[in-house]
Amino acid sequence: MDNARILYANAWDSASLTQSAGTNEPSLPITNSQKYNNSRSFRTQTTDDVEVLFGWDDPVFLEAFAFWRHNLTSDAQLRIVLYDGPGQTGNVVFDSGVLLGDVPKNLGDLVWGKDPLGVSSYTDWNVASRSFWFDEVFVAQSGRLTISNPTNPDGYIEIGRIYAGESFSPTFNVDLGHTFQWETDVDSRSTAGGTVHTLDAATYRTLSFNLTHLTPGDRASFAELTRIVSKHRDFFISLRPNVGGTIERDYSFAAKFTEIPSLKAEASRYETQCKIREV
Predict the structure, then answer these.
(1) Domain made up of 9-167: CATH architecture
(2) What is the DSSP letter of 261?
(3) pTM
(4) Closest to 237 (Cα-Cα) out of 217, 213, 261, 216
(5) What's the pLDDT tens digit per position in 91-113?
């Protein structure tokens, strides 16, 4: 099982983007995927295939892609191709081939007699994500993203945010005893008759976990991570990357730190506690 990973250096935000296939809603262009704003997304007018060309002035390091707040279905397909030259030229340094656009339930997650094989883990969820964590770091200057989902019942393709870049993964995984919880910012109020009224408001995930065996190399990387994201920048986290099913679904989301983690040192071993919330 892969250790937890945090995609924190989002190179996608600084990329030049061109939608070369598919027609977007004029007010919802692909550049919306470079901004943290849940009121703005990228959305097409139809379910025609989408192709996005992206690139940078200088080469960047890429070891993960994540798609947040999307409406892709279980038969959606993605393909990511990376080049070491500008404008989709030079050598192909990575070709993902066909990737599933959704996270299907694993066999152990299926409710037998109810769930069909291949059913989405995000059935009845309001927010869906899809992340791909690579086994190595690729140096690229441009790329091509292709999305195909012709049977999408919404009649369009939508993605709220895209993350692509470097990630942090500790040498020794998250300690046993982490805390996962659904939260809401709505308070309940009681009437004189004892009835408790609570508004139906959005819920979000929170995570609290410890990393108590950080190596000197981990310490340097984690200190840089917290310097970059602080409390104001969003990042993408997965405590269960590349395992699929409902456990990857539950532990993978866009997030922010609720407080900037500190680092405690004991000789050449370091530790920290992370508290984050879904955004």
Answers:
(1) Sandwich (2.60)
(2) P
(3) 0.92
(4) 261
(5) 999 999 999 998 888 888 888 87
